[in-house]
Specification:
The protein is of the alpha/beta class. It has 2 domains: 16-183, no CATH class; 192-343, no CATH class. It has 18 helices and 4 strands. The chain has helices at residues 2-13, 24-32, 41-46, 48-58, 66-77, 89-94, 96-122, 157-160, 164-183, 192-209, 220-234, 236-252, 258-266, 274-290, 292-300, 303-317, 324-333, 336-343, and strands spanning 16-22, 130-138, 147-149, 152-156. A 4-stranded mixed sheet has the order 1-2-4-3, sandwiched between helices. Strand 3 (147-149) and strand 4 (152-156) form a beta hairpin. The structure holds zinc ion. Zinc ion is lined by residues 173, 177, 203, 206.
């Protein structure tokens, strides 16, 4: 009885998070592919997943329209690949048996995967937050990169090539971004330094929430992610130097594109996202020096306070310090008010 009461107390203090793995869309598409029974056009047009996908990709190319998507589904149902296969149904048709088996396996693991994601997120979410999200697998989409809308994250199943652990961690990383937007401040776009700080904190903490180095299976996406982690571990001091150089360039070059260039080099996969790794390293140092509550509180503060707190922890623990140009930017943005709100985190 006492145990049950204690459990009740603990669960009422924990954040209320639910993430479902949704395979229904992919499963319906796969059932239709090569069935030669035609399509339910109204149902396709009414599908929220199809609408979000078309909306997302329409930003990049005008020909990603619902009409084009409906025609691609019609052709795929007839086992035909259109000449311009923008929704990549050729691969879906070719691998349909394998993908059906993959979905069946994923369905049996659905609850376990949802619980794993929920646990990962719960450990880094303030207690007062409740969140309901979904990770949806899609077949027949324009690209291997995932996309999100609010609390929903979408990813192409054929691209994952059966890497279900990779899917779990990827979904946790992306879903954590939706949780961050519930409690982290959005710095003004006009403040380049704070925008970059904020992105480093968001990507760094998401990388710690879903740490791919924990995965023991060796799916393709997992291997890629683990290689990136190893590369960045090896060159961590150089990553900090690079960040310092970027802040020198941002403040001194007068280049109107300095901020975009910094993001392209530091915060994209182009160079294995060195600033994601810095953010992850900062997160771990703050977490072990000051504790989880302080970490979450600093994430909710203005971004320069997270950087200043890291540098103080690094000084105390002998970790790599932030370079002088990064510290200048952090100090310049710190005000009496933001410093006081961060002080309350300790
Ligand atoms: Zn991310």
């Amino acid at each position: 009885m006492i145990g049950a009461l204690a459990a009740l107390f603990v669960s009422s203090a924990a954040p209320d998070i639910h993430v479902n793995l949704d395979t229904s869309f992919a499963s319906a598409v796969l059932e239709e592919v090569c069935s030669k029974t035609g399509i339910d056009e109204d149902a396709i047009r009414a599908s929220e997943t199809a609408q979000i996908m078309v909306d997302h990709f329409h930003q990049f190319r005008d020909d990603f329209t619902m009409d084009a998507y409906v025609e691609a589904r019609r052709a795929a149902a007839n086992c035909e690949t259109p000449e311009r296969d923008i929704f990549r149904f050729g691969e879906v048709i070719e691998r349909r048996e394998e993908l059906r088996a993959d979905i069946a396996l994923l369905e049996t693991r659905g609850e376990e995967i949802g619980d794993t994601i929920t646990d990962m997120l719960g450990a880094y979410t303030p207690a007062e937050i409740s969140f309901a999200g979904a990770a949806t697998v899609v077949t027949g989409s324009p690209s291997c990169g995932g996309w999100s809308r609010d609390a929903a994250f979408f990813v192409d199943l054929p691209c994952l090539k059966g890497d279900h652990d990779g899917l779990t961690y990827l979904a946790a990383h992306e879903t954590y971004h939706a949780i961050q937007s519930r409690f982290m401040p959005e710095p003004p776009d006009s403040n380049e330094a704070l925008s970059i700080f904020s992105e480093i904190i968001r990507e760094g903490t998401a990388s710690v929430v879903a740490d791919f180095s924990e995965i023991e299976t060796n799916g393709a996406y997992t291997q890629l992610s683990q290689r990136v982690i190893k590369t960045n571990d090896r060159r961590m001091d150089a990553n900090f130097d690079l960040l310092n150089m970027a802040f020198f360039y941002l403040s001194k070059s007068g280049d109107p594109e300095a901020s975009q260039k910094t993001e392209a080099i530091g915060l994209s996969g182009f160079f294995d996202s060195p600033f994601y790794a810095i953010g992850a390293g900062m997160t771990r140092v703050i977490d072990s020096a000051y504790g989880r509550d302080a970490l979450l509180c600093l994430m909710a503060a203005t971004p320069e306070q997270f950087f200043l707190a890291y540098d103080r922890a690094a000084q105390e623990t002998g970790e790599t310090r932030l370079g002088p140009n990064v510290m200048d930017a952090a100090k310049k943005n710190s005000t009496r008010k933001t410093a006081a709100s961060a002080k309350a985190c300790f």
